Amino acid sequence: MSRFLFATFGSLGDLHPYIAISKELIERGHEAVIATIEEYQNTIEGAGVEFARVRPNMSELGDFPTLIARLFDTHRGMEYLMRNLVMQHARTAYKHLLEASDGADLLVSHPLAVTLPLVAEHRKLPWASTVLAPMSLLSALDPPVIA
Predict the structure, then answer these.
(1) What residues contact residue 75 under an 8 Å CB cut-off, 6+ apart?
(2) Distance CA 90, CA 50 (A)
């Protein structure tokens, strides 16, 4: 039996694939933990999957409509996401993921869980990166366009 840690940050669209994979792993006799923001704790535990908290919480990120407007800004949205939502909280996220990875056999990260590879290196554990959003599959021939 193996223990899997999934680390994600983002919307429910980022969360639900990890819930589905976790449930299947549990069904097959493994353990699965999803490390993400506190607001998803009830959803994760309600699905029968173990939850581990990682900051920042949505409440720490400010007014939701303003946050969404900044994230979907055509010219500065990605910069805002990385600078203000991901990197600003990297030390805390690393600490929480290091704790959550205790006893894990494999670490699996969402693209925005940028500190999980560092945790994997520290713990000498295998790590797999996932890409869920088509927009993350960059192509010079077919560049993504934000609506």
Answers:
(1) none
(2) 22
